[in-house]
Specification:
single chain, about 130 residues, mainly beta, seven-stranded mixed β-sheet, four-stranded antiparallel β-sheet, globular
């Protein structure tokens, strides 16, 4: 069992930066692939980024590549999403997710993850 709690969302102007954190509890965190997704009202949850259990492998959606960075600190049971050069279209509720299978592959569908946080709102003003 893994419990996830996101933080760090807020209101920022276009071009600004935010860092989201996702704190995990549970002994299996260090073996989980971790992902970030986002969702706007009326839309499906959209993949943003993922990081392997070791932190060595990452994958990004094309829309955020070069602007967002995902990384993790397994000593703190936390995964981060550094978001730079934010755009109004990045406005969404951001969720972190955990896959506990212990096997890494590029997982971009929400149903490929086992656990979810409650989300944190990111609003980018123009």
């Amino acid at each position: 069992q893994v419990q996830l709690v996101e933080s760090g969302g807020g209101l920022v102007q276009a071009g600004g930066s935010l860092r989201l954190s996702c704190a995990a509890s549970g002994r299996t965190f260090s073996s989980c692939t971790m992902g970030w997704f986002r969702q706007t009202p009326g839309e499906e949850r959209e993949f943003v980024a993922l990081v392997s259990w070791s932190g060595r492998m990452t994958h990004y959606a094309d829309s955020v590549k070069g602007r967002f960075t995902i990384f993790r600190d397994n000593t703190k049971n936390t995964v981060y999403l550094q978001m730079n050069s934010l755009k109004p279209e990045d406005t969404a509720v951001y969720y972190c997710a955990a896959d506990q299978s212990g096997r890494y592959y590029v997982r971009t569908r929400p149903d490929e993850y086992d656990y979810w946080g409650q989300g944190t709102q990111v609003t980018v003003s123009s």
